[in-house]
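Quick one, probably user error.
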């Protein structure tokens, strides 16, 4: 009796593998992830502290933004103790004090 159950279990596993191979993975596809822009070698990078000073926010706010995905950063430390570096393009994208690129303001008619 025990051997029959084991064989049945193995057949079910084999059937799942065959179905997965024929139809792709049985798992749902992963959602696309936003990839932060890759900097050039000349582009400056900043620490969390420097970014906080530039954006006039606290260091904890900057870390919260990174964890929430609002600000892209690269972890150069350990996974359990991250040390983030933020590229200048991300700071410019996030900076609430930045001037609009079109010059801003109303145009006289």
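Nope, works fine. Designed sequence:
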């Amino acid at each position: 009796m025990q051997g029959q159950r084991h064989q049945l279990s193995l057949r079910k596993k084999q059937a799942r593998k065959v179905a997965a191979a024929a139809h792709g993975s049985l798992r749902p596809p992963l959602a696309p992830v936003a990839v932060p822009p890759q900097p050039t070698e000349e582009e400056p990078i900043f620490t969390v502290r420097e970014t906080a000073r530039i954006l006039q926010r606290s260091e904890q706010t900057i870390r919260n933004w990174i964890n929430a995905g609002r600000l892209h950063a690269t972890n150069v430390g350990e996974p359990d103790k991250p040390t983030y570096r933020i590229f200048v393009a991300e700071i410019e994208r996030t900076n609430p004090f930045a001037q609009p690129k079109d010059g801003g303001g109303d145009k006289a008619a």
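The beta strands are 45-46, 74-75, 84-87.
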